[in-house]
Amino acid sequence: MISHWEEFHSGPTEPLDKRINVTLSPKNIFYLNGNICDKLGNPEAVRLLFDKVNSFIGIDPAPASLPNAFPLKSKLGTKSRVIIATTFCKHYGIKVDSTTAFINTEIDENGILRLDLKSTTRVSRPGARRHSR
To answer: Residue 45: left (phi > 0), alpha (psi -120 to 50), or beta?
Structure first.
């Protein structure tokens, strides 16, 4: 019998208290879980940056008083935050057809969260909608 094994490289899921999660929804909303907010210093607002050459989004903690600062809005009852980034996404032509998670997120030496648009995974079906009761 011939076997064609393929090794799974991702490993197990990290515990919730260590997991870093950033997603972008089709409605241009970034979701940052509490762990990444802690690592960014729990800012009130951020500047959004874009590297066209390498397809990276940068999220840089900033004072809410800056005219181009995007406020971090609370997710009810959690440490997570959201950024409503419609103007940013439209300006740079960033579009996802389903909620998309960024893989291998990192905070660089300047304190900027780097999100690689070439390293993502879909976390919901295209056009999927949650129904509330």
So the answer is: beta
